Amino acid sequence: MAEKPELKKEPTEVENLVEEKVALAKKLGLMDRGKDPIEGYEKTTEYKRINEIDLRLWELIK
Q: What is the pLDDT of residues 14-33, one digit of tens each?
């Protein structure tokens, strides 16, 4: 009997958002040990996007 090929699972919206948030946080120096945040990171579009992601994650998880 032939085995079923394993289906590739598409990432969920939550997984995509978390991945994006981590990438942005690393770029701004907010993650990874020994890193310092870049100066003025609170005013960047990346930080604004992190806040948008947080709001969406809250909606999805609550």
A: 999 999 999 999 999 998 87
Tens-place pLDDT, residues 35-48: 789 999 999 999 99
CA-based end-to-end distance of the chain: 44
Confidence (pTM): 0.80
**Chain position carrying tokens 């990874």:** 32
Closest by CA position to 55, among listed 17, 27, 28: 17
Tell me whether residue 15 is exposed, middle or buried, using C-beta atoms within 10 angstroms of its C-beta: 0 to 12, 13 to 18, 19 or more. exposed
Q: Scan for tokens 């909606």, then name that residue.
A: 59
